[in-house]
Amino acid sequence: MSVLPGxxxxxxxxxxxDSREFFSRILHKKRRRKFGLxxxxxxxxxxxxxxxxxxxxxxxxxxxxxxxxxxxxxxLDFPKMHYETTGIETTVTFWPVKLKDSNRVxxxxxxxxxxxxxxxxxFDHMLxxxxxxxDAMLFLFSFTDRGSFEDLSNxxxxxxxxxxxxxxxxxxxxxxxxxxxxxxESDVTRFKEVWGLPVFRVGGxxxxxxxxxxxxxxxxxxxxxxxxxxxxxxxSIATAxxxxxxxxxxx
Length: 251
Fold this sequence. Notes:
By secondary structure, the protein is α/β, with parallel strands linked by helices. 32% of the residues lie in helices and 21% in strands. It has a single domain (13-250), classed as P-loop containing nucleotide triphosphate hydrolases (Rossmann fold). It has helices spanning 20-23, 66-74, 117-122, 126-131, 146-150, 152-159, 185-195, 214-238, 244-250, and strands at residues 27-28, 31-32, 50-59, 88-98, 105-115, 136-142, 167-173, 199-201.
């Protein structure tokens, strides 16, 4: 179940003056910094900020723009010509957020996993590797490919189970190509009513602006943090009547 936008974190915090010092850590000459798997933003001693790490699997048919979305969220350039991902690619994105109740600032480290559809069908270990210890999944469709939209239900049912504690969000790509759209707003509305999942729209070229990626990254952060808080509350309730020794065994 997704949470209401802005109920946990400060929406559009990147527009507030007090966010500049934090967002400057993921920027270089007004463009996003590229971070490798072992890299992180450099923090001065006076900035006491915790980093929380999450694995996010990007799922979708060939050609919907999985690699392009990962690049967009990381502020990276991507090839204009489409080519299918031959294996598994990972992209690291850091995103600072401010919690509404406590004014605490957290750096979210998203590790996006993207796998080519052909490789996933050919090698049985690909999908299990992408799903292993995954925290969230982005299900993609293209507004210019109705087949990718109609495959959403099958895609979600095939990859996830009702018992999975995984954040699920849907992203419609190529929304800027409205003259060639094969998916209508009423289609999207019906899907949201049936599945109860939020649908985000992306399109256009990657730019240095934070505003185009903020809604999706904030939604990921908000839902993941909410899920962790619920899990922590459940553990606290479950261990309330246990001795210290019992708690150490659980941990």
